[in-house]
Amino acid sequence: MLQASRIHFCIQKRPVVDRISLTLQAGEILAVLGPNGAGKSTLFKILSGEISCKHGDVDYNGLPVGNLNSKKLAEIRAVMPQHSAVNFPFSAQEVVELGLFSTQSKNPAKLVEEVMEATHTLHLKNSNFQHLSGGEKQRVQLARVLVQIWEQKPFPRYLLLDEPTSSLDIAQQHGVLSILRQLTQRNIGVLIILHELNLAAQYADRIALLKNGMITSCGPVQEVLQEKTLHQVFDYPIQILQHPHHGGLIVSTSKPSFQKQLIKQA
Amino acid sequence: MWTTHPYSKTRAQNLIIAGLLAILGVLGLVSLSLGAYQIPFSQLLGAILDGLGVQGVAAESQQVNVLLQIRLPRIVFATLIGGGLGVAGASLQGMFRNPLVEPGLIGVSSGSALFAVIYLVLIAGSTGLWKTMSAFGLPLFAFAGGLIHVAAVYRLSRSQGKTETSTLILAGVAINALAGALIGLTLFYADDAALRSFTFWSLGDLGGASWTKVPTALLLILIPSLFLLRDYRALNALALGEHEAFHMGVNVKQIKIKLLITTALIVGVGVSLAGMIGFIGLIVPHLIRIGFGADHRLVLPGAFLLGAILMNVADLIARLIVIPAEMPIGVVTALIGAPFFIWLIFNLNKPKR
Question: Does B120 have pLDDT greater than 90?
Answer without folding.
Answer: no
